[in-house]
Design a protein that fits this description.
The protein is mainly alpha-helical and 84 residues long. It contains three helices and no strands. The longest helix is centred in the middle third of the chain and has 38 residues. The protein is elongated and about 65 Å long.
């Protein structure tokens, strides 16, 4: 029996207590991914406020990067929902 098989057998013998811990862990990961999405939206808002205050050459690039961060956060959240 390989170590991986032993590990799987150990996990399956634990019962509902371990299953609840796994569900709580998955819920915590999804919550953290939602917080990451909220953080990325705050970054977009801050970049917009900065662009109103400071005029410079980086306005468009920073806004594109901030929106790319939101897109990345959405993709990670969707992948997390699919995988978990």
């Amino acid at each position: 029996m390989t170590p991986f098989d032993k590990f799987i057998e150990f996990i399956t013998r634990q019962g509902m207590i371990e299953l609840e811990a796994v569900i709580l862990g998955k819920a915590a990961v999804i919550l953290l991914l939602l917080l990451y999405l909220a953080f990325s939206l705050v970054v977009v808002r801050q970049v917009n406020l900065m662009n109103k205050t400071i005029n410079g050459l980086m306005e468009k690039r920073l806004l594109v990067a901030a929106k790319a961060l939101v897109g990345l956060a959405m993709v990670v959240l969707i992948l997390g929902l699919i995988v978990l």
